[in-house]
Amino acid sequence: MGAQWKAKHKDLAANAKGRLFGKLAKDIMIAARHGADPAANSRLRLVVEQARKVSMPKDTLERAIKKGAGLTGEAVHFEHAIYEGFAPHRVPVMVECLTDNVNRAASEMRVLFRKGQLGTSGSVSWDFDHVGLIEAEPTAPGADPEVAAIEAGAQDFEPADDGATLFLTDPTDLDLVSRALQGQGFTVLSAKLGYRPKNPVDASTLNAEQLEEVETFLAALDANEDVQNVFAGLQG
Known about the structure:
One of its GO terms (molecular function) is DNA binding. It is found in: Cytoplasm. The protein is about 35% helix and about 25% strand. It is α+β, with helices and mostly antiparallel strands.
């Protein structure tokens, strides 16, 4: 769970597709500010590839690109904000928001963190590394993630979900490593900048009720319309 919290329960995942499309549309619009052509805009290319992997409708994808690039005449004003704090039982949390109303986002974060503890800037971020996170799966049996990490220039790797591998990079190397992994027998499922906990809480130290409280808290954060990513210091 450490790199980026993901809903594990089926009832939480049921509405995840719609939320995911909404989050990706925001990412696409932000990236498209620097050009509507994915071939000439590496940030946009990575997000578009991720959107296609999760079967975002083509018209939704193209509309987000045009809107972000200013080709529709609509103004797009999203501001980036990061909130730091603790989930129940002192699990550190970093929350990334993209919002068109900073005051609304701040107010809603204060409400959501009532069941945890909202911190000030720097109160939790010191315990996280800012890294590139690339989730990839082998295109053929026998592809070696360790060899791929070395050859592609990743800093580290570890198993991810369903046979995939999570490759960690320096933030400035995200696009370079993503492209290099494809030449090492891996298909990139997602590539983004994020936060990696240095000292995650071991989930085995929490009982079932405590873990459920943490999960419920994180799910409520993830469901907020302004929240793009939730990074929790919880391992296992």
